[in-house]
From TrEMBL:
It catalyses: L-aspartate + NH4(+) + ATP = L-asparagine + AMP + diphosphate + H(+). Pfam families: AsnA. This is Aspartate--ammonia ligase. Pathway: Amino-acid biosynthesis; L-asparagine biosynthesis; L-asparagine from L-aspartate (ammonia route): step 1/1. The gene is asnA. Keywords: Amino-acid biosynthesis, Asparagine biosynthesis, ATP-binding, Cytoplasm, Ligase, Nucleotide-binding. It comes from Yeguia hominis.
Length: 337
């Protein structure tokens, strides 16, 4: 069910043209800061991949990829859900070495997405991936990387506000990060749903990295779904901010240290996905041929929403919306691109 709610009294402080200028500046600033902080090089990325390679991201395992046949190759292609596995293969093919990585624009179509203030059928994010050593496969290295990303976001916001004084109403992102695991969060709020737990915690801790997503908690239910073949569920997480405009926890990035051979073996079994072991990507990883990596996706439209004080994702990206969404926005003067 689609559900759009514009907060009472919401007013957009940027005109349509100012919004477009601010989006362009924000993206240029953040790309440069992210690339510099994590030692990443920009590369080109595919819009679709061969379905037989196993490179597409399966998300929660229920979303249907947009698929089509290619007569010239005799095969079938899928529009990417994300580039989680493609990036790691690219690092292998391009011969990157530890301490360096890549980032790219990822554009995807998620046909089964429910539409609301935060979700669209169209997905745009910075996908990044970096080669690490086996000694760096630990929580401290993960936290260090999270701090670098949050610092890049805060620095981007400072420059934006200097260029666009109209954004003074947007509260600064808190540089101080609270790190908490999904099990610790469940222990704090056992009676709440996962999203309610996030909201309760983020009210007090405005910038949070929620760790260890994918495995079952003591309740027997995972906090959220994660595919078994890219993130190590013990070394991953989401970067969350408190969104003052919407009054809720707001995910900007899903990321983590990626599976090694042991984690892949374990998680494929837990998820009931042992049939994937013979796919080219999975086979190479289980044989130890792919580099150890850390990586993630950072939502471009999500970050624009947060730093520009927007109430709906359609204010910062062009997509297709249902009649209910268009009507709700029209009534309060919110312009969808």
């Amino acid at each position: 069910m689609n559900h759009t709610v514009i907060p009472e009294g919401y007013r957009d402080n940027l005109s349509l043209y100012e919004t477009q200028k601010a989006i362009g500046l924000l993206k240029r600033l953040f790309e440069d800061k992210l690339g510099g902080a994590l030692h990443l090089r920009r590369v080109s990325a595919p819009l679709f991949v061969d379905a037989a390679t196993g490179l597409n991201d399966d998300l929660n395992g229920v979303e249907r990829p947009v698929s089509f046949d290619i007569p010239a190759t005799g095969g079938n292609a899928q529009v990417v859900h994300s580039l989680a596995k493609w990036k790691r293969m690219a690092l292998y093919r391009y011969d990157f070495f530890p301490g360096h990585g890549l980032y790219t624009d990822m554009n995807a179509i998620r046909r089964d997405e429910a539409l609301d203030n935060l979700h669209s059928v169209y997905v745009d994010q910075w996908d990044w991936e970096k080669v690490i050593t086996r000694e760096e496969r630990n929580a401290e290295y993960l936290k260090k990387t999270v701090r670098a990303i949050v610092d890049a976001i805060c620095s981007t916001q400072e420059t934006l506000c200097a260029v666009f004084p109209q954004l003074s109403f947007v509260k600064p992102v808190d540089r101080e990060i609270s790190f908490i695991t999904t099990q610790e969060l469940e222990d704090l709020y056992p009676a709440l749903s996962p999203k309610e737990r996030e909201n309760a915690y983020l009210r007090e801790h405005r910038t949070t990295f929620l760790m260890q997503i994918g495995g079952k908690l003591h309740s027997g239910i995972p906090h959220d779904g994660r595919a078994p073949d890219y993130d190590d569920w013990t070394l991953n997480g989401d970067i969350l901010f408190w969104n003052d405009v919407l009054g809720q926890a707001f995910e900007v990035s899903s990321m983590g240290i990626r599976v090694d051979e042991a984690a892949m073996d374990r998680q494929l079994h837990i998820a009931g996905c042992d049939h994937r072991r013979e796919l080219p990507f999975h086979k190479m990883l289980l044989e130890g041929k792919l580099p150890l990596t850390i990586g993630g996706g950072i939502g471009q439209s999500r970050l624009c929403m947060l730093l520009l004080g927007k109430a709906h994702i359609g204010q910062v990206q062009a997509s297709v919306w249902d009649a209910e969404t268009r009507s709700a926005c029209e009534k309060v003067g919110v312009v969808l691109l």
